[in-house]
Amino acid sequence: MKLIGPFKQLLPMTGLPLFGPLSNEQLLVLKDVGILIDGENIAAIGNFEELEKLHVTAEIHFLKGNHTCLPGFIDSNTQLCFGGSGINKNIQETVLETSNTSKEVLAKKTAKLANRHLKNGTTTIEVKSGFGLSAAEELKILRALQDAQLQTKVDLIATYNAAQNIPKEYSGNAEKYLATTSSELFPILKNENLSHRISATLSNSGFSKEQVRSYFNKAVEMGFYLSITENEISKSSDNTTILDSDNCFTTALAGTSIGLGNTFAPARNILDNGGSLAIASNHNPINAPMGDLLTQASILGAYENLSTAEILAGITNRAAAALNLKNCGELAVGKLADFILFHTSDYNEILYNQGSFKPCVVYKKGEVVFDKHK
Question: CA-CA distances (angstroms) from residue 323 to 124, 227, 278, 313, 329?
Fold first, then answer.
């Protein structure tokens, strides 16, 4: 076992409701504590000196200076797997570039982007397909994600997103395309363990709500989790109520709003009306190339008058809930030892600096995966 600490402050992000507004007073702030790690998981969190006395055989990682500890960030919506640069912001060009890129190159490029996120404190990333627009190309993207997982410590959560646009050969026949992709590819996704999530896009995609409903019904029957994107918002659930109700997990696609110069998702309104809000970079080559979750969440938070607690929850525990993940997003016994350290004795400095203040050390599953001191 390993004991890391002491931390001047540790925010476990536990005990917070998943729905509704949050005040900073609701944040639990632990002081002068350590984290005891057993393998990939957290074994204990408590006073550092007491843990040191109780676990005399533990390997001690003593921290010098002031450090504040948070759970590793979770980016709950991206499209990191693509070919080309996307600099022309043309989706058809990106589809062609992706088609002309081998699975091996896609995997290497995706892992490189994921590793960049990792250095900024993001330890789990959802990655949608969608730049394939054919059965073979969509499968190539998802298989590339499997290969990319072997080249990065970040947990990559794959989402099948073929219902992003209608392929040319199905022009005017969206219903047939969705029926074909669900009947032919859903079983392959299950058999090869390529994805447990199905996504669709309503805005500017050519798909109607009722067409997507039928598609989603098939997905639910097969045990897939659902995600729907419309404008600068993504919603997720285990059932089709996301098409008609706001009583689900909502993700604000902050990077898309910045990239398009559009107004942000109405985050304040969503929370005040009892909703659950995650915040994502939506890192993609068309309209969100920045891929800096902390910066984008900070900017959205400023525009939408969010509390520090609401922003941090949006990229930790509420982001985990949006992805239906039970093992991350919080620092607690039994959870993955995914956490990040900032050189400060006051957590408020993190968002005060609007994303320019980055983690100095990143732990993933109990191992140091980034240390700016080395």
Answer: 10, 9, 10, 14, 10
Smallest Cα–Cα separation from 248: which of 225, 217, 221, 223? 225
- Find how far residue 112's CA is from the centre of its chain: 16
**CATH number attached to the domain at 73-322:** 3.20.20.140
Map residue 336 onto helix, strand or coil.
strand
Q: Would you call 245 exposed, middle or buried from its count of C-beta atoms within 10 A (0-12, 13-18, 19+)?
A: exposed
Would you state the structure tokens that stand for residue 277, as one six-digit string?
Answer: 């809000």
pTM: 0.97
Each residue of 39-65: pLDDT tens digit? 999 999 999 999 999 999 999 999 999
CB 300 within 8 A of CB 267: yes
Sign of the Cα torsion 75, 77, 81, 85 reads negative
- Boundaries of CATH 2.30.40.10 in the chain? 2-71+330-371
Please report which residue ranges of the chain form alpha helices under DSSP H: 48-54, 91-99, 103-119, 135-149, 174-191, 209-221, 254-260, 267-272, 293-304, 308-314, 317-322, 348-352
Residues 6+ apart with CB under 8 A from 230: 201, 202, 203
Could you tell me the CA-to-CA distances from 119 to 113, 211, 360 in Å, in that order? 10, 40, 9
Second CATH level (architecture) for the domain 2-71+330-371: Roll (2.30)
Work out whether strand 155-163 and strand 122-128 pair parallel, antiparallel, or are unpaired.
Answer: parallel
Shortest CA distance to 243 belongs to which of 258, 253, 233, 252? 233
Give the orientation angle of helix 135-149 with respect to helix 103-119, to 10 degrees: 50
In the chain, CATH 3.20.20.140 covers 73-322
Phi, psi for residue 187 in degrees, rounded to 5? -60, -35
CA separation (Å) from 154 to 115, 137, 231? 7, 24, 27
Cα 134 → chain centroid: 25
> How confident is the model over 172-185, as pLDDT tens digits?
899 999 999 999 99
